[in-house]
Amino acid sequence: MTGPVSDEPQPPATIYDVARLARVSPSTVSRALNKPGRISAQTERKIRAAAERLEFEINPMARALPTGRRMTLALMLADITNPVVFGLIRGAERGAAAAGYTLIIAESQESGEAELRMLRKIQASVDGIVLATARGPAEPIRQFARAKPIVLVNRVEPAVASIIPDVPGGVAPLLDHLRACGHANVAYLSGPAASWVNSERWAALVRLAPPLRMSVFEIPGRAPTMAGGAEALERVMLSPATAVIAFNDLMAIGLLRQARQEKIAVPGRLSIAGFDNIFGAELTTPALTTVAAPLEDAGARAVEALVALIEGSPARLPEMSPFELRLIVRDSTGPPAVG
Amino acid sequence: MTGPVSDEPQPPATIYDVARLARVSPSTVSRALNKPGRISAQTERKIRAAAERLEFEINPMARALPTGRRMTLALMLADITNPVVFGLIRGAERGAAAAGYTLIIAESQESGEAELRMLRKIQASVDGIVLATARGPAEPIRQFARAKPIVLVNRVEPAVASIIPDVPGGVAPLLDHLRACGHANVAYLSGPAASWVNSERWAALVRLAPPLRMSVFEIPGRAPTMAGGAEALERVMLSPATAVIAFNDLMAIGLLRQARQEKIAVPGRLSIAGFDNIFGAELTTPALTTVAAPLEDAGARAVEALVALIEGSPARLPEMSPFELRLIVRDSTGPPAVG
DNA sequence: GCTAGCTTGTCAACCGGTTGCCACCGGCCT
DNA sequence: AGGCCGGTGGCAACCGGTTGACAAGCTAGC
After folding, report:
1. Which of strand D's nucleotides are less than 7 A from any protein C-beta?
2. Tens of pLDDT, residues B79-88
3. How many domains does chain B have?
4. Which residues of chain B are within 8 Å of residue A149 when distances are taken between CB atoms?
5. SS3 state at A128
6. What is the tens place of the pLDDT at every residue in B71-106?
7. Cβ of B20 near strand D (distance < 7 A)
8. B201: domain range?
9. Cα B171–B175–B180 angle (5° rounding)?
10. 3-class state of residue A194 by DSSP
11. Do A160 and A175 belong to one domain?
């Protein structure tokens, strides 16, 4: 019964310590803390007071063992380097925190094999996984999804929950805008062939351009990075395009900077638009026209859906509407200079 | 002895399954997998084969319980929103992966109290913590550091390991550069008062300016964000400054954009420089002069030090040299226009 | 041939919680 | 007053690993 409670680096208190202090059994402590109503109000108060006094924090590992509930989620990314994922990370982190979960971040380094290895390794540590890697074969993912809740971002697989953008809803206004500016030939600077979003965007272009009397064609991008964008300028300039829609802002920015460097007028000679509205898109000169995705929101919703999957009735995929895209017109698109 | 090993969503294999298949006891499996040499080579092979066949992955939670080794590290951030942390995250994630650790990310929302709560909550789940939050009172941190390995980033506390930049080494070239351009009055647009880096930068300016025959003065920034930077323009323009050194790139960019918007010539009327070299700093017009910090590297080194602390002899702080800063001269600084 | 000494594998306890089952308690009904 | 009942709390087993102590098996030495 000495004074100070904590002073030396004593090990964290366990429910046994709490039980001793409250003069009850450990199981009673466990129930008092987790099963509201199971224990008389008076005892519960006593126990909570003891827990408070000892600064008791439950040991998540010890709890996870018998229950299987780890209160931990994983966010699996292909490449932490890409600014696009920042919004996702933020949203997922906040969503997880709000639901009382801890988030772990894993990077698959763009390799399907590393991805599978990673998945297997963290499987035992998490209750569910948000997969934003978009690559890799479908079969293993489907199999994993049967064993453990998974939510896909920017990718669809049958029988697996996923949260995706309303691609045509974002592409249409962009095409309208370009048409209104007077562009008739539009190049699509494409991203990774295996990416769901990439094919969707291309598909939307193919479907939406003809009614507007616009021609579209694909210029394959080598990498979805600034370098990949810059590299593509040569082929763009050889083409009849007066406007380019890039797979993402990173490529768009790379292309734009390269164009500026080569004294090609943007938007006069070449209009450029991207996707995602990453940090930095509004900083370029000219500022980049882009189709903004509410990535932070998407991350949060993915986590919400995952939690629903984990805590809700099994085998029922949450119904999820695609998230809205929003065209942000800045200065990198405009009427082509005549001549 | 049927054919396929895995097909249905069977639960992950345990060492008991492996033991049964290899016809040894579970403890033998444990030793075969962790204690090289403790088990005969032949038995070990047999066990490894069985583990392979069952796709056995050790359950980190179950291991953590008796050993206390969780193989997990936490990276504690004040605000995931800030692009500066991205480098840190990347580096930490890669460092952790390289050392075989999993990384969890926690956000303290800039609040000292939330930070402490967070710390307490995750304490049981991790072997060590990289604290990059920089705020909050010192005493609780010191106390935590006694109980569990902690590495501070951009902050120093006695008896706690920390990894910090060589601030004067970064400020000196910047001042030299401004002096060479012809600036004599330099404003420091300051960051959070509680930030160690902030006071160090100011201190370095105070020490280094006089020998160069330059005057420096502080303009307090409201927030270390783009908005905070933009807001400060008014006070900057009221001051005699011809050059501004901002606490970070975010503020510098905010200031720069606001200046552009108000038709103030940069660098003609006002030279602007920042710190960190975040993604986007080279995208502005004019491109931002900044003092680059190898943040990714710093994150990796912080994790390395943490791992050393965890695995090495206790109570010996790893000797860590400050990381080098590098001046990147771009276009936002230059000679002041005469007149 | 017998024992000392080493190697190898097993037994059982433990980490810190959770939970099914049961015992005990007091109150209420008949 | 006795019996039943609902509410409360304790016992003990269990989750999946780890590890100290020990026994069995083997070799080697005398």
Report:
1. 7-12, 14-20
2. 777 888 888 9
3. 3
4. none
5. strand
6. 999 999 887 778 888 889 889 998 998 998 988 888
7. no
8. 167-293
9. 150
10. coil
11. no
